[in-house]
Amino acid sequence: MNPLSVTCLLHLLLLLVVADAFSLFPKKTHVQINNDLGSGIDLTVHCKSKDDDLGERHLGYHNNFDFGFRPSIFQNTLFFCSFQWNGLFHRFDIYVQIRDSLLCPVIKETLRLYPPAPLVPRETIEDCTVAGFHVPSGTRLLVNLRKLQRDPNVWDKLPDFMPERFLSDRANIDMRGQDFELIPFGSGRRICPGITFSLRVLPLVLARLLHGFEWGTVGDKAIDMSESPGLTNHKATPLEVTLSPKLPSMISASIKMHTTYNQ
Ligand code: HEM
């Protein structure tokens, strides 16, 4: 190999290491499939991606099968698995990158457009001037989070539900009260103490529900997203959905994904 090729190769390697160190590549994703079908019932699992065949696995009761992969930077990774036991057969897409990597952005976009507590009360403890307005001590005010989070000077394509915005220009925005354009948990010394719990539990619950069920609406009607006025945000029309399990509850598949939230 001539010196020029060696230099190019070294540069390429350096670029790959730097890209990895600065998280330019998606983080590794792990899938775990557990057999909880019941004592004596074996499960045959066969998972494939568009390029890889992970082979057939036979899982005894309480055994599991794990695999990991790095999703594509082109957002087109797909893994699908078939499950067979006692003469039954099920197949489903276990990881669809464009669907699954959007989970946390979907939560951010939902909390942006529909903050559960849209008005945060405050009372000033001393005289102050804000944007030229004199605010005397003891003034009660309601900070309108909903309005801040839909401000057309800050957010484009209003009022579209667009989780993709958190994958590109606003990828680093966080909801812990420091980026004032998105503060669904409030900010300052009275910020919501349930924030860490919520940011852990919301993606888990949502992932579990999406992976476990096919979702639909009664008569395929569009969901009415209008809200009713109040200190907490309620839907004007109650949500009615149909759920059909993708798999019997005894087989569970869990996916650990890198979330965009800070610890
Ligand atoms: C998506 C979930 C949640 C959202 C969007 C949310 C939002 C908020 C907001 C906007 C406030 C007012 C913050 C401020 O005044 O700056 C608040 C306060 C509070 N939240 Fe949450 N919350 C959530 C979940 C929880 C959970 C799970 C808990 C308890 C386990 C919790 C407990 C509290 C408490 C105790 C306060 C009052 C804090 C204080 O006044 O010092 N919240 N929350």
TrEMBL record:
Pfam families membership: p450 (PF00067), Self-incomp_S1 (PF05938)
The stretch of residues making up the signal peptide is: 1-21
**Where is the protein found, in the record's own terms?**
Secreted
* Superkingdom per UniProt: Eukaryota
List the SUPFAM superfamilies.
Cytochrome P450
Task: Print the keywords alphabetically.
Answer: Heme, Iron, Metal-binding, Monooxygenase, Oxidoreductase, Secreted, Self-incompatibility, Signal
Q: Do you know which InterPro entries this protein is assigned to?
A: Cyt_P450, Cyt_P450_CS, Cyt_P450_E_grp-I, Cyt_P450_sf, Plant_Cytochrome_P450_Monoox, Self-incomp_S1
The record's principal subcellular location, in a coarse class, is secreted
Q: Could you tell me which PROSITE patterns the record lists for this protein?
A: CYTOCHROME_P450
The family classification in the record reads: Belongs to the cytochrome P450 family.
Please identify the protein, giving its name as recorded.
Uncharacterized protein
Organism encoding this protein: Hibiscus sabdariffa (roselle)
